[in-house]
Specification:
By secondary structure, the chain is of the alpha+beta class. The protein has a domain of 64 residues. It is built from three helices and five strands. The strands form two sheets. Strands 2-1-3 form a three-stranded antiparallel sheet, with no helix packed on it. Helix 2 packs antiparallel against helix 3. The longest helix is centred in the middle third of the chain and has 51 residues.
Length: 154
């Protein structure tokens, strides 16, 4: 006597075996009016036709989908790399600007500290004015605070 599980397995195997797709034949012939006809039905007996061979099935039915996924992943990697490169370039430029600003502030502090050299500036009226000692001290404090706020060395 067959076991119920064996019957289920046999039925499943039979269902899978009959469910596989069968490639339909394609026929080509010229009808009486000179038109080329393609059909899955054989031509009438009065007309000679040829059975066309179907193209082989694709090696990977998901090939187009996988190719699109690979292309999307490549585009993302390229975009991410460009973004990272731009961020790195911006960081380098910011660091160079910071270093330049710190160097200019340090130079200004040295000039302000040397009291033997007069420093002139243009006033609001457009005339040249020599900085007083009080103005020098105030400017030194402002530049020193800027250097501290911007974490300049020295």
């Amino acid at each position: 006597m067959l076991r119920p599980l064996s019957l289920v397995a046999a039925g499943l195997a039979l269902a899978i075996g009959t469910a596989t797709p069968v490639a339909a034949a394609v026929y080509k012939w010229t009808d009486s009016q000179g038109r080329v006809v393609y059909s899955d039905q054989p031509p009438p007996p009065s007309v000679t036709g040829a059975e066309l061979k179907a193209p082989p099935p694709p090696a990977n039915p998901n090939a187009a989908k996988e190719l699109a996924q690979q292309e999307a992943a490549y585009q993302k990697r390229t975009s991410d790399a460009a973004t990272a490169q731009a961020a790195a370039a911006k960081a380098r430029a910011d660091e160079a600007d910071h270093a330049h600003g710190c160097a200019m502030a340090k130079s200004t502090l040295l000039q302000l500290a040397d009291g033997s050299v007069p420093i002139t500036r243009y006033g609001a009226n457009g005339q040249r004015e020599t900085m007083s000692d009080a103005a020098r001290t105030q400017e030194q404090a402002r530049v020193t605070a800027w250097m501290r706020d911007n974490k300049c060395p020295g």
